[in-house]
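# step 3/5: fold
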Amino acid sequence: MGFGSYTSGKLVQTGAYRCDGQGGLSESGFGSSDRARNSSNDYAIDNTLHPEGTTGMSMHIAIPHGKSAAFKKTAVAFGIQRDGVDWNSMDGTYAKLIFLIAVPEEQAGNDHLKILQMLSRRLRDDNFREQLLQVKSTDPAYDLLQTIE
């Protein structure tokens, strides 16, 4: 499965949304899609994604993740926070490219590691990161995400 099988246009947000830098995002796309949802939207966002340690990587990237029985399928939401959020990243940069990985408990190891591997390979490319930062709407962002393998 490629990266495109874990996301959709409904899970991409290029406009303003709230995030707290600790793994919690709201208006991330999970609330408007049943792809990863089972019942309560608040449960998955507020109670599942509490990472141990930082999920702020470097190069303005954060990858909060969590597992829960509330998720039916593995899904990745993507958001651009243009001003950046202090995510305690390894290099001290504020996160601007945020990938939220939600995994059902029974698939926690395999899907999560596969997605991280795909992201890490593609996000090393300076041009790719810059292209993501420059998009102004959902469709171009989603199209770029489809190139992740």
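# step 4/5: annotate
Residues 23-52 have pLDDT under 50 and may be disordered.
# step 5/5: archive (pending)
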